[in-house]
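Supplementary Methods, section 5.1.

A reviewer requested that the exact input to the structure prediction be made available. We therefore reproduce it here, unchanged from the version used in the analyses.
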Amino acid sequence: MEEFKSGFVTLIGRTNVGKSTLLNLLVGEKVAAIANKVQTTRTAIRGIVNRENSQIVFVDTPGIHKPKTKLNETMVETSFTSLTDSDIVLFLIEATSDDIGRGDRVILNKIKESKRKAILVINKIDLVKREKLLSLIDIYRKEYAFEAVIPISAINLKYKEVILEEIEKNLKPGPAYYDIEEYTDQTLRQLAEETIREKALQLLQDEVPHGIYVEVEKMKERKNKNNEEIYDIEATIYCLKNSHKGIIIGKNGEMLKRIGRAARIEMEKNFGIKINLKTWVKVKEDWQENNSIIDKFKLK
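The structure derived from this sequence is encoded token-by-token as follows.
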């Protein structure tokens, strides 16, 4: 019988390169928030893939960017810390690059320092011609001895098996770290917070989203009058300014209702249980510099 393998794989790349989309594709479940905005992922989220002869634990990291607040510094630090703790690094770049950009260069240097096994995944190949792709592969191959280079489109299911097989090939024999029923180490509370934040990111104007933070204050299971299981969830969306609060609530509370409705539908689908969701909006001007909040985003 084939020996069981396991290991931790860090998914790293610049902001908005498609890491969370790829993680959800590989895990086959909605684990990471996806919104077409930078800094959607703030913490290192673990997604678990159980295969016949292996367990792969993916760590999706915040995108690498230039930090402007204490929160941003923590996010970048989290990404680089998880590099040194991983067995394999999955480095995601965009096919549209002509050369190694500044952000990608910073990551590449960190990979070199870590001396970890690394697989280069080139996303968005549908946007470029073959010659350009080959030239980019050549540039990166000269920089580091990648175990493999895999060109993909992160929204296409056919690449899932190719990546998972390549990772499995490079793993060492080891135990299953998580129960085979699990697909993430996030609690339901964290998943609820992520879902509400994702819907806000998708529905709000550009200037608001990065200044929001969601906290679930209450999460209680009960049975309704039809004897169906139902979760009562109460959450607060914190923002940086009063003007943002007005935008999040919207005219006659319409925007907040839309966010709540979209989050509730998503959670019911993911949790497989009815949800009764109540949301509030509060202003907390300094939360991005607040240590007790920022500690939540550190790699545990």
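The mean pLDDT is 79. These observations are discussed further in the main text.
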